[in-house]
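Comment thread on ticket #2218

A.B. wrote:
> Attaching the input chain for the structure job we discussed in standup.
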Amino acid sequence: MDVAGTGNITSIGNEKSSLVYKGDGTPHFVFGLNMGASWKGFDLSAFFQGQFKQSIMRSSWMAFPFQAIYSNQNPAFLGKTWTTSNPNALFPRLTVNPSRAAWNYANNDFMLQNNRYIRLKALIVGYTVPQKIAARMKLTRVRVYFSGNDLWETAHIKDGFDPEMGEASVDNNGYPYARTWSFGLNVGF
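C.D. wrote:
> Ran it. Output below, let me know if you need it in another format.
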């Protein structure tokens, strides 16, 4: 982008450079919120976490379509690449030509994204059976519950990137993101 207004894309060596500082990969304004409530045998516990700002530079297959011809492609590119009928597209044209691909996907501001998010990290919903009913079953306590981890999030980046990975793995080549659900029964004798 011609930030300096010179009509050219210039580098650091010039007085009016088109290279601009756009942030860093450090998470800023990280937060957590733990909530709980109980009423007539029902209990609820929820933990939310997130961050308001982190600049990440996407890389690998998450930023470059056809980075490796044999690999799966990120569906985020579908319909969003440059063509003659879509000249204002978010991403450059698709190509498997190595020299054009290197030019198309040199560091560019479309790869820089704000990794802000909020996530429901943990949720527990339970019910404790009244003592009178538990005593009839010759038990001191009976509680049933549902527990879940990473059940919901809203993130600025919506293409499958796990925002908790942050700058450390901007291509998410690790294990697939997983949510967990479990049901349980606590019994006291």
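A.B. wrote:
> Thanks. Noting for the ticket: The longest helix spans residues 98-104.
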